[in-house]
Amino acid sequence: MPYSMTGFGYAQKSTDDTDVIVKIRSVNNKGIDISVKAPRDILFFIEQDVKKLIKENFARGSFQVFIDIVKKQPELLVDKNVLKDAVKEVKHLSRFLELNLSDDKIYDIAHHIAEDTKRETTIDESLKSLILETVKEAIKELKEERKREGEKLAQDIKERLDKIETYLKQIEEKKDQIIEKAKQKAIQRLKELLGEEYSERAFIEATILADKMDITEEIVRLKSHIKRFRELLKKDEPVGRKMDFLCQEMHREINTLGNKMPDLSEYTVEMKSEVEKIRQQVQNIE
User: Fold this and answer.
1) Is the pLDDT score of 5 beyond 70?
2) Of 129, 154, 157, 232, which is the most exposed, with the fewest CB atoms less than 10 Å away?
3) Host domain of residue 231
4) How confident is the model at residue 191, as a pLDDT?
5) pLDDT tier at 201 (50, 70, 90 boundaries)?
6) H-assigned helices in 195-264
7) Number of other CB atoms surrounding residue 69 within 10 Å
8) Domain count, the chain
9) Does 220 fall in a domain?
10) Are 58 and 32 in contact (CB under 8 A)?
């Protein structure tokens, strides 16, 4: 059963002092595109690992990964001595630049400097492991939702394929009668133009016309495309691109069929409409 590219996954894991919350949203995309949002002091250390996990589990889609880290116990954000030195430095610079900064403004600037000074150049491996395990859980939930959505899409496509087959059956039942009627009409018209003495030629010309109207090949190919479509609907793998190609081929056969036999336009118009609706659904299949 094919998977949808639309879905949402959520997971949360906790330790004694930390909660890790991961949300993943996905929508359709021609390829694979991944955006990871996390606290900036850990994003550098986990971004590539998170993207790798997404790519290992999905072939197509646009993914937004949101990672939130909640500390249960407040931690000292900056070193007091570093903050004190930063305040002195900011005061010195403000005097040098002849700036009139309030104490609050000086503190804010110094605090940012102290935070950047404190920012770690490594990540605690236990925290990194916890984050990636939480991402895996969110991916698992996302896959389940994409599967459920895929089942709905597949069911809708099956029903539309059934409609196309019904129209195709009606076409098969009427095509011979339409061809014969067109042939007899052409013979009569040619006799009127050429005279009765050219009746044999009229018959030959009408037969050629009837051959040009023959839609047997288009019907056979269309049936083959429908059969292939149903086979793809049973596969548990990315099939969206193949389905999109089949939609193009089906539309082309129906269009040719309609051009050859305009009397069947009531059916070909409906068939093209169903193929277009299938194509719209296929755009969301992985």
Assistant:
1) yes
2) 129
3) 149-282
4) 54
5) low
6) 199-213, 216-233, 240-260
7) 15
8) 1
9) yes
10) yes
Check residue 8 and report its DSSP letter.
Answer: E
Which two three-digit tokens encode residue 128? Answer: 């990194």
* Residue 218 included in any domain: yes
Query: What span, in angstroms and rounded, lies between the C-alpha atoms of 64 and 278?
Result: 27
- The answer to whether 62 and 28 are in contact (CB under 8 A) is yes
Please state, in angstroms and as integers, the Cα–Cα distance from residue 191 to each residue in 179, 183, 201, 204, 273, following that order: 18, 12, 9, 12, 40
State how far the Cα of 164 lies from the Cα of 35, in Å rounded to an integer: 40
SS3 4: strand
User: Which residue type is seen at 155?
Assistant: Q
Strands 18-27 and 7-14 come out as antiparallel
Q: Which two tokens stand for residue 69?
A: 């880290």
Say which DSSP state 100 is in: -
Contact 72, 19 (CB under 8 A): yes
N residues, the chain? 286
Within 8 A by CB and 6+ apart from 67, the residues are 20, 21, 22, 36, 37, 38, 39, 42, 46, 50, 131, 134, 135
**Domain annotation covers residue 64:** no
Residue 170 lies in a domain: yes
The CB-side HSE value for 58 (13 A sphere, CA atoms) comes to 37
